[in-house]
Amino acid sequence: MDIMLFHSTYGLTPSVTAAAERLRAAGHRVWTPDLFDGRTAATVEEGMALRDALGKEELLKRAVLAAAPYSDQGLVYMGLSFGASVAQTLALGDEKARGLLLFHGTSDIAESAAVDELPVQLHVAEPDPFETDDWLSSWYLRMGQVGADVEVYRYRGAGHLYTDPELPDYDAEAAERTWAVALAFLDSL
Predict the structure, then answer these.
(1) Which residue in 14, 52, 99, 148 is a FRET match for 113, CA 20 to 30 A apart?
(2) CA–CA separation, 155 vs 177, rounded Å?
(3) pLDDT tens, 151-177?
């Protein structure tokens, strides 16, 4: 499977590279575009400031340009937190997308979005300050309305970025369960 993996607001950190290596070890080809031009953040607030300084339009443009050379072959879009919102936006706009794998995040859904049974898997903490229960319920319903085939996995007690071993949110047990389910999802595509 060809996977375009987008980083969180922390930037292209060693943990993102490690996630890509884990996917490669499972037999996938993976690209990890650096949307922040080599800058990384030490805190989520610092990361949000980086994201906001670049702006949503510029970040989406960078993401589209990174994916464009590979999108004809049918990509799985994957993202971590902020990167999940980028991945979701691209997958819903790419008629050749093979799947969408979201860790720790979702995004608004464009009114014009429409897919044909796009396989989608979301892994998120429960509770998650960035992905509230009400938001996730409406997101799930809306994704179904646009034609996505969605599975949602919640991890009670885990922190927001619980798969990132570099962060205080890290939860080894939840991370391993997430990876097991996510790798099986990728194998099913």
Answers:
(1) 52
(2) 9
(3) 999 999 999 999 999 999 999 999 999
State the pLDDT at residue 69.
97
Instruction: Please give the full DSSP string across 9-36, using - where no structure is assigned.
Output: TT-S-HHHHHHHHHHHHTT-EEE---TT
Residue with token string 């396989």: 119
Between the alpha carbon of residue 39 and those of residues 35, 163, 167, the distances in Å are 9, 21, 17
The pLDDT of residue 52 is 97
β-sheet with 76-80: strand ranges across: 29-31, 2-6, 76-80, 99-103, 119-126, 149-156
Burial 33-54 (b: 16+ CB within 10 A, else e): bebbeeebbeebeebeebbeeb
Angle at CA 137, nearest 5°, toward 135 and 141?
115
**How much of the chain exceeds pLDDT 90, in percent?**
99
Q: Which two tokens stand for residue 36?
A: 């922040």
